[in-house]
Amino acid sequence: MKDILAVSIDDNEQNIMLIETFAKHINLNIKSFLDPKEGLDYIQNNEVDILYIDYMMPKLNGLEIIKEYRKNNEDTPIIMVTAVSDNIELKINAFEAGANDFLCKPLDLIEFRLRTKNLLDLRFAKLKLKNRALELEKEVKKATNDLIEREHESLEVLGKIAEWKDPETAQHISRVACYSKLLAEQYGMDEEFQELIFYASPFHDIGKVGIPDNVLLKAGVLNDEEFTVMKKHPLIGYEILKDCKSKFLKMGAEISLSHHERYNGRGYPNKLSGENIPISGRIVAIADVFDALTSIRPYKGAWSFENAVDLLIDEKGNHFDPKLIDIFLENIDSIKEIYLKFQEKK
What we know:
Elements: E1 5-9, H1 13-25, E2 29-33, H2 36-45, E3 50-54, H3 62-70, E4 78-82, H4 88-97, E5 101-104, H5 109-162, H6 170-187, H7 191-200, H8 213-216, H9 224-230, H10 233-241, H11 247-258, H12 279-293, H13 305-314, H14 322-330, H15 332-341
Helix pairs in contact: 2-3, 6-7, 6-12, 6-15, 7-11, 10-11, 11-12
């Protein structure tokens, strides 16, 4: 027990010497204090394995020390040392204060050894369980993080599949995700929502997998009939994702269905207006249109960054949520960083 630290607090020097002698018999490392205030200060600022505290002392009695110590330490075993062996009220008060056991004066070596050993065995068993619990907590946290990483990886792969038939690229997915997260953050959405929209936004056009190639890949402006077919993709995407249990895919369904709605109510498929359009859809509508404008498509060249921004301003309150457009403009430097970071490879 040499590495085990015990502390004895007793205003009687003979009692201190006796406890120190007993401690040596069981190879216990012990530190003693005649001044109860000094003893309390030491045990409050150092890790201790077991305490021996006298009851009757000036300045602070044993009960007061125990109560004060237990405010910040519930685990260290405490043995109260008292000359009053038959005082039931004292024992009740001591247990309520946080004492674990008693030693009655005059002290007996055998009793001292047994009570000390029993309390230390219990302490170290608890510490072992606590350490094991912490290890398990770390293992569970690691396993959870691994699952989250795998889910994110799966979402990224699914997002790429969603764009496979479309001439849009992986860079388009990255830009829309980053634009959407930035707008969500600046709008005041919490971190969970920001993460959700980052991983869900790539599914905004997943419904295009159900659009015939002659319409989807047409190198030119769609006629009315073809555009009617194209307008089915939000509902197709919603139908694909709506029953998924993943919170990311659920938001993906919401985004798919709502990102072609317009703030003035003239969008599709449900002609929603204003804040009746989910905030996820309102955010992705801006991110998607801006990126589409600044990207090359079979039917058009890429607009300049500045011209695309001008269109968003022109459509403020018509196509797009005016508050979100203001946020977009207030964070234009960050938008441009994303735009430049994920440039198409030539």
